[in-house]
C-alpha cells in the first residue's frame, strides 16, 4: 500500500514536469513566432517613419557644379561654375590642391557663382558649395577637377598688341606653339574684322602660322579687332585651345617707302603724296636685296649685326662683319633684312653704289644721336607695320612667310590658303 502511494506520487510529479517542459516549449514558440513577426513589422514601420521625417527635413535646393567631379582637361576659362535651382547659394569656396583660395563672384540673385579670372593649367581645384531653399533648409555639394595641361593644350602668340597703332601693312599674325592638324576648327574660332568694312581672310603658311589681311592695305584710321575663341577647340588629337581674348588696334596714316635699287633712291609717301626722297645703298651685286613688299616688324635705335648669324662667314667661320652699334635699324624679314643707318660707309656711296650684304642702308651718325641724318628721320617717322617696297633689285622676290610679308601673294593665292 505504501509502495503504491509512492508510485502515484512519482507519476504526478512526472506529469507536472512534463507540463512545465511543454509549457516552456509553447512559450518559446510564441516568442519566436508571433513575437518575431510583430517585431519585424514594427521595425519596418519605424524605418518608414524615419525616411518620411528625413524627406520633410531635406532642402529643395539643388546645387550643380561644373566641371563634373573628377573631370580632367577642364577649360581654364569657362568650365568652372556653380548654379542652384529652387534655392539660393549662400557660400562657394574654390581652392587649389595646395589650399590657395580662388576669388570668385556670386551673382546678385544668388543663383550662380564663377571665378573672377582665368584658371591655371595643370592644376587641381576643389569647389565646396552651400545653398538654402525657401524654408531655410541647407544643401551642400563638393567637387574636384583638374584643368588642361600644357602638354594637352595650345596657345597662339599674336601680333600686333592690344591698343597699338600700326602701319597699313601690318597683318594679324598668329604663331601656335603646337602644330595644328584641324586647321578648319581653329580658324573657325578666330575672327578678324575692320571698322572699314574690308573683307579679311586668313592664310595658313604652315601648321603653326596663320596670318590675316585684307585684299589691299588696311584703310588708314580704321580699327581692327581680333577675337580668339579657342577655348576648348581641339586643334590636334587630344590638344585643346585655352585662349578667349579680344584684341583691338588702330591703323595709322598710310605710309609707304619705295626703294629703287637701280636708281639707289627711296621715295616716301603718305596717303599717296610724296613727302621725302632719300638716297640709299642697297645690296651689292654679290648680295642683292630682296625685291617685294616688306613690312617693318621691329625697330631698334641701335643693334648688333653679325654676319655669322645670317650665313655670311669668312674662311675661319667668323662673320664677314660684326657691327655692335648699327643705328636706327628696322627689321624687314626674319632672315635678317633691315633698313638701317650706316655710319661706316663714305657719304658718296648713298645714291650712287649698292654696297651692303642685302640690307638697305641710309646715311647716319655713329651713336644714333644726330636727328638730322636721313636714317634718323626715317626711323622717327616710321612705325611698325609701315610698308617698304624694294624694286629693280637683281634678287628674287622675298618669300611671303619670311617676315610679315604676305602682301607678296595675290589675293587669289592668299584666299587659297584659308580653311573655311
Automatic annotation (TrEMBL):
Region feature (Disordered): 33-54
Source species, domain of life: Bacteria
PROSITE patterns assigned: LD_TPASE, PROKAR_LIPOPROTEIN
GO cellular component: extracellular region
InterPro entries linked: Big_10 (IPR041280), LD-transpeptidase (IPR050979), LD_TPept_cat_dom (IPR005490), Transpep_catalytic_dom (IPR038063)
Record-linked Pfam families: Big_10, YkuD
Domain L,D-TPase catalytic, chain residue ranges per copy: 255-391
GO terms of molecular function: acyltransferase activity; peptidoglycan L,D-transpeptidase activity
GO BP terms in the entry: cell wall organization; peptidoglycan-protein cross-linking; regulation of cell shape
Pathway participation: Cell wall biogenesis; peptidoglycan biosynthesis; Glycan biosynthesis
The entry's keywords: Acyltransferase, Cell membrane, Cell shape, Cell wall biogenesis/degradation, Lipoprotein, Membrane, Palmitate, Peptidoglycan synthesis, Signal, Transferase
Keyword Transport: no
Comp. bias regions, Basic and acidic residues: 34-44
Catalytic residues (positions): 340 (proton donor/acceptor), 359 (nucleophile)
Protein name from the UniProt record: L,D-TPase catalytic domain-containing protein
Organism: Streptomyces lunaelactis
Lineage: Bacteria, Bacillati, Actinomycetota, Actinomycetes, Kitasatosporales
Amino acid at each position: 500500500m505504501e509502495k503504491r502511494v509512492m508510485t502515484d506520487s512519482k507519476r504526478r510529479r512526472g506529469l507536472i514536469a512534463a507540463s512545465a517542459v511543454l509549457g516552456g516549449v509553447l512559450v518559446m514558440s510564441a516568442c519566436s513566432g508571433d513575437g518575431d513577426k510583430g517585431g519585424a513589422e514594427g521595425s519596418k514601420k519605424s524605418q518608414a517613419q524615419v525616411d518620411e521625417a528625413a524627406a520633410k527635413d531635406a532642402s529643395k535646393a539643388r546645387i550643380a557644379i561644373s566641371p563634373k567631379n573628377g573631370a580632367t582637361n577642364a577649360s581654364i576659362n569657362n568650365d568652372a561654375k556653380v548654379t542652384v535651382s529652387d534655392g539660393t547659394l549662400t557660400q562657394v569656396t574654390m581652392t587649389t590642391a595646395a589650399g590657395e583660395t580662388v576669388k570668385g563672384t556670386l551673382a546678385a540673385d544668388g543663383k550662380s557663382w564663377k571665378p573672377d579670372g582665368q584658371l591655371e593649367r595643370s592644376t587641381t581645384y576643389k569647389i565646396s558649395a552651400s545653398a538654402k531653399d525657401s524654408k531655410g533648409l541647407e544643401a551642400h555639394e563638393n567637387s574636384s577637377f583638374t584643368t588642361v595641361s600644357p602638354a594637352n593644350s595650345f596657345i597662339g602668340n599674336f601680333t600686333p598688341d592690344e591698343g597699338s597703332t600700326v602701319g597699313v601693312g601690318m597683318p594679324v599674325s598668329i604663331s601656335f606653339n603646337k602644330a595644328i592638324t584641324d586647321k578648319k576648327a581653329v580658324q573657325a574660332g578666330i575672327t578678324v574684322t575692320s571698322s572699314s568694312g574690308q573683307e579679311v581672310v586668313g592664310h595658313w603658311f604652315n601648321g603653326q602660322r596663320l596670318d590675316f589681311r585684307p585684299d589691299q592695305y588696311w584703310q588708314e584710321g580704321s580699327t581692327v579687332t581680333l577675337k580668339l575663341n579657342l577655348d576648348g577647340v581641339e586643334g590636334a588629337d587630344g590638344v585643346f585651345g585655352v585662349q578667349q581674348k579680344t584684341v583691338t588696334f588702330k591703323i595709322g596714316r598710310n605710309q609707304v617707302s619705295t626703294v629703287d635699287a637701280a636708281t639707289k633712291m627711296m621715295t616716301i609717301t603718305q596717303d599717296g603724296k610724296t613727302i621725302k626722297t632719300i638716297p640709299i645703298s642697297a645690296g651689292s651685286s654679290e648680295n642683292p636685296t630682296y625685291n617685294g613688299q616688306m613690312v617693318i616688324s621691329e625697330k631698334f635705335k641701335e643693334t648688333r649685326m653679325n654676319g655669322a648669324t645670317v650665313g655670311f662667314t669668312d674662311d675661319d667661320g667668323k662673320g664677314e662683319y660684326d657691327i655692335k652699334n648699327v643705328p636706327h635699324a628696322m627689321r624687314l624679314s626674319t632672315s635678317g633684312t633691315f633698313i638701317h643707318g650706316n655710319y661706316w660707309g663714305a657719304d658718296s656711296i648713298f645714291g650712287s653704289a649698292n654696297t651692303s650684304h642685302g640690307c638697305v642702308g641710309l646715311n647716319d651718325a655713329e651713336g644714333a644721336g644726330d636727328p638730322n641724318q636721313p636714317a634718323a628721320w626715317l626711323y622717327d617717322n616710321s612705325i611698325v607695320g609701315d610698308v617698304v617696297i624694294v624694286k629693280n633689285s637683281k634678287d628674287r622676290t622675298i618669300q611671303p612667310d619670311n617676315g610679315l610679308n604676305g602682301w607678296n601673294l595675290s589675293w587669289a593665292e592668299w584666299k587659297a590658303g584659308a580653311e573655311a
